[in-house]
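Comment thread on ticket #2218

A.B. wrote:
> Attaching the input chain for the structure job we discussed in standup.
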Amino acid sequence: MGAMAKIPHSRLAQVIERFDEVEARMGAATEPDEIVALSKEHAELRDVAAKARELSGLREELAEAEAMMSGEDSEMAELAREEYHALKQKVPQLEQDVQLMLLPRDRDDSANVILEVRAGTGGDEAALFAGDLFRMYQRHAQLMGWSVEIVSLSPGDAGGYKEIIAEISGTDVFGHMKYESGVHRVQRVPETESGGRIHTSAATVAVLPAPDDIEIEIRQEDLRIDTMRASGAGGQHVNTTDSAVRVTHLPTGIVTTSSEKSQHVNREKALDMLKVRLYEREREEADTARADTRKSQVGSGDRSEKIRTYNFPQGRVSDHRINLTLYSLDKILAGDALGEVVDALRAEEQALKLAAMEGEA
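C.D. wrote:
> Ran it. Output below, let me know if you need it in another format.
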């Protein structure tokens, strides 16, 4: 990356003024919706406003030291010169920190997500791998302080899952999890393989943003709602009532199901999932229309794209989008070190966005 462009003072002032305005309005707000919106914006601006103040203060100190360097008092000028050079060394990192914090965010970065993990090619081994991936995400969510609620699942014949869908709620979930969409491939010797041959199988992961304020109108006449008997782990029936719900959106053919709770709750969950799917459809159409923006993003979220390989014989995980290879497969698949992979992907995306901004400047 080249030299960091200097952030205009007006931009720093704008961030600080907006933060102060939000903070002042929070103290006077009485409407619940306004309080929630202001609290969210306050949380998003707090850190960048603090850094902007720090950078503004540093620039003022630099200007003062520079002015004193040309004073008649030679001893004071020398002290000012030393202070100037010491302060000057802090500027590049602080400029970069603020630049990164000011980068345009995906509008859904702060949203909760619907996580879908499905077994791909590889039969029973693919279902087992889908189970491994889901447990990895459960553990990562736990470490991040998020909550995970299973919406529906279809167990594999030998364990794991043919499909499992869950809602993950917390702070900035989509901003962290969006890099996981795509095909994950595993290379290992299955426990059932007597010859000890390495088997390659795959699972598909989809991460869909589920913001609280999705505004999509769904007409009742566009829906077909069916009830069915719910199944639990191992395929046994959870109960003898038809509590699971399947919703079909007739204009698009999108189908959503929920089978974890009562029929009434399952109906609500399935309709919520339908809204998320329709919202994702709108997102994809908008992204296609703005295809050039994808150049500054790591991975398109294309679920047919092979994004990562987990190689057990070598104990390695390779992310193909950024040519990252880590020899800590056990810790990553356990969920304890997945953050290292996500951090590398986020850093690469930030670098691409910075380069794009500097190219436009």
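A.B. wrote:
> Thanks. Noting for the ticket: Residues 9-102 form one domain.
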